[in-house]
Amino acid sequence: MVGSIEVHTQNGSVNNKSSVGGGGGGGMEERLDELRHLLGKAEGDILRIVGVGAGAWGSVFAAMLQDSYGQFREKVQIRIWRRAGRTVDKATAEQLFEVINSREEVLRRLIRRCAYLKYVEARLGDRTLLADEILKDGFCLNMIHTPLCPLKVVTNLQEAVWDADIVVNGLPSTETREVFEEISHYWKERITVPIIISLSKGIEAALQPLPHIITPTQMINRATGIAMDNILYLGGPNIASEIYNKEYANARICGAEKWRKPLAKVLRQPHFIVWDNSDLVTHEVMGGLKNVYAIGAGMVAALTKESATSKSVYFAHCTSEMIFITHLLAEEPEKLAGPLLADTYVTLLKGRNAWYGQMLAKGELNLDMGDSISGKGMIQGVSAVGAFYELLSHSSLSMLHPEENKPVAPVELCPILKTLYRILITRELASQGILQALRDETLNDPRERIEIAQTHAFYRPSLLGQPS
Fold first, then answer.
1. Which of 464, 81, 68, 135 is nearest to 274 (CA)?
2. DSSP H helical ranges for 187-275
3. Which DSSP letter does residue 468 get?
4. Catalytic: which of 41, 75, 290, 418?
5. 254-289: per-residue pLDDT in tens?
6. Rounded-to-integer distance, Cα 58 and Cα 200, Å
7. In sequence order, which residues have a C-beta less than 8 Å from that of residue 427 and are 6 or more positions away?
8. pTM for this one?
9. Which stretch of DSSP H or E encloses residue 198?
10. Mean pLDDT in the chain?
11. 290 catalytic, yes or no?
């Protein structure tokens, strides 16, 4: 039934008044009413928001909305879709049981909801839990150590999206196209056009008719026919679990002004500052680029036993390559420097891509296991390495090498990217290859790469699908 779920705050108590936004429930309700009015919702017509994909960030995003607006049950319904049938292994069930029993408020909540016994049975091996089942109780499979509020979970995609007013894409970029192509079948008879907010960081490469990047928002646009004016991207330097635990964070919502400004107001909280920006695709691509170099950072950290000196050498080279690549992608790359470096910094510190690089270098994971890792989700940096390498090695993008005075593909000026490609994609090198690349005596000073980017006309608008 619409609005039938009991609304709990993060600590498990029933939430009757919003403490978010600094103005009590009234301030939050005014923001909600403003958005409802903009969407043409009449009194009694519920605003339906659904998250598609229940990874860490997608689940946290839905939980934050539920914590903030779930109390207004006659005005808004917040749900999240994930595929049915994913089981929770016994080791994870044991960890989950420990988490529950270490959090009194969570334990009391589950007992009150008559949901505790199944976790006892799973701990003993007498029952197999399902990912969608535990998500209803506020546990994301990719982030079990951070309990969320209870969520309304739907496992039927058609039921979830067919009448949704706002759809939040929490899927990896590698799954976005396929799922939204399915969604498009359910929207054929729609009269109203939904708003889509994509959280996905990742890219695909297309080489025809000219080499260009395809981002998740563009995948959604092509799969559904929804105009880009109704599709937005939200991203920033943040870790999902820390945001839900109210660590201070910020993000940008990018897209058409009509929607980004009111949505920024609705999403903004005292601990989660949301700015707005018109440059959707470039910010989206930058979100994918930092994942590439985060994997290498994890490898360097593991191989050098967390040597601060080695990590700083790597950081200097990888940031110079990212700056070089932004000069290819953006007409005004200096505007991206702050957001890109901030997002890169937090990902190197605690992101899943850096963690993946560490586990590869330690031998605790191997490439044959794939890039979808239990307890972590999709490691999007792997596919991004392949996509950026394919694009930047294309002969049509060749430029005159400033020192050798001969045409070269842009990737030839990106030795870290080339090395990661040889480690992760062609598998010519072991993880130790990243250190060999850093210690190569022919490696130029990273400052020189930045100077090359700043003093030569490298901008290639076609890479983002824009006319030259």
1. 68
2. 216-224, 240-244, 257-267
3. -
4. 290
5. 999 999 999 999 999 999 999 999 988 888 888 888
6. 9
7. 367
8. 0.88
9. strand 195-198
10. 89
11. yes
